[in-house]
Amino acid sequence: MGSLDGRVAIVTGASRGIGSRVATRLAAEGAAVALVARTVDAGTSRLPGSITEVIESIRAGGGHAVAVPADLTAPDDVETIIERAQAAVGPADILVNNAGVNFYGPALDIPPRRYGLMFQMMVHTPFRLCQLVVPGMVSRGQGWIVNITSKQARHPIGPPYPEWASDGCVPYGMCKAALDRLSTGLAAELAGTGVAVNALGTSGLVMTPGVAAVSPHTPDNAPVEPDEAMAEAALLLCSGNPAELTGRITYSMEYLGRPFPDGPWALSATF
Q1: Which residues pair with 127 in a beta bridge?
Q2: For residues 102 and 240, what is the distance between their CA atoms, to the nearest angstrom?
Q3: Which has the closest alpha carbon to 237: 201, 190, 262?
Q4: Are 52 and 42 in contact (CB under 8 A)?
Q5: What is the pLDDT of residue 79?
Q6: Contact criterion met (CB below 8 Å) for 49 and 20
Q7: How many CB atoms lie within 10 A of CB 132?
Q8: pTM over 0.90
Q9: CA separation for the pair 268, 271 (Å, rounded)
Q10: How far is CA 68 from the centre of its chain?
């Protein structure tokens, strides 16, 4: 018996990295998981990882998972995700908005197409998926939404500003700040319905394929958190009492109560 037996979860960006780990952890606790991503098969992306590989791993461990292929920057694809997931595994009890993309660089130099893609994937898509999934959750009297955020949504203290405050993440931080506000505002609107909404970010560096490809932060200049921390924290947020555990913006190691060293974008150096 798992803590999520009989529940259905949808996880976006589940072909690799944090999304695949969260999906795998929820499945291990008994949830039927719909994996949403663009990369269906191995070898079709420049980054390693695919929905098919994650599903095979989950099923090998006795879990239940299905693929819901979608381009999360394409509004027409987004409109069908909840419906297709429900047809495959049933009405969703859990939604994890994890999918993300980042183009680092000075804010004034980021081309409109790039920040447009970032906002589409990390702001418009999570907002629309919430609009599509929440009515069913409310009608059933229970639901859990976890939006994957980042400490880069926080504000560096200054002047003088620390060097890491100019690491080229302004558009990404803008998107995550919007996602934080969606989380707290929607939690307030849904209070008393049985639906919880929380935001969860990493405490430190997680060396996902995407981070390894683009981030200026490396194990040499930032503390690395355990690979399982985000999945464990997400599980707790997806199984807590919605009447009490909602409206939080929290970070993996802090939420798990594990000591962790300060690094770039540390809570103590931001507000």
Answers
A1: none
A2: 30
A3: 201
A4: yes
A5: 98
A6: yes
A7: 17
A8: yes
A9: 8
A10: 16
